[in-house]
Automatic annotation (TrEMBL):
Keywords tagged on the record: Endonuclease, Hydrolase, Nuclease, RNA-binding, tRNA processing
This enzyme's EC code(s): 3.1.26.5
Superkingdom as given in the UniProt entry: Bacteria
GO MF: ribonuclease P activity; tRNA binding
DNA-binding listed as a keyword: no
Protein name (record): Ribonuclease P protein component
Organism: Crossiella cryophila
Matching SUPFAM superfamilies: Ribosomal protein S5 domain 2-like
Signal peptide: none
The keyword RNA-binding appears for this protein: yes
Pfam families: Ribonuclease_P
InterPro entries: Ribosomal_Su5_D2-typ_SF, Ribsml_uS5_D2-typ_fold_subgr, RNase_P
Length: 71
């Protein structure tokens, strides 16, 4: 994760939040898929709901189903 997101404490917090949000969304991908989630600087100030919404929006653009899960 880029240092533009914040200091190491902030970067690790964002990383943990994204990992938790992705855990509920992994079933949308075929087995063996590889995915990279890039955190932009605004991620440091975003709420979990905002991050989840951003992930769901990106998945919609990819044509993946958006359902349930924590958003």
């Amino acid at each position: 994760m880029s240092k533009a997101v914040g200091n190491s404490v902030v970067r690790h917090r964002v990383s943990r939040r994204l990992r938790h949000l992705m855990r509920d969304r992994l079933d949308r991908f075929p087995p063996g898929s590889a995915l990279v989630v890039r955190a932009l600087p605004a991620s440091a100030e975003a709420t979990s709901d905002q991050l989840g919404g951003d992930l769901d929006s990106a998945f919609r653009k990819l044509g993946l189903p958006v359902h349930g899960g924590a958003a």
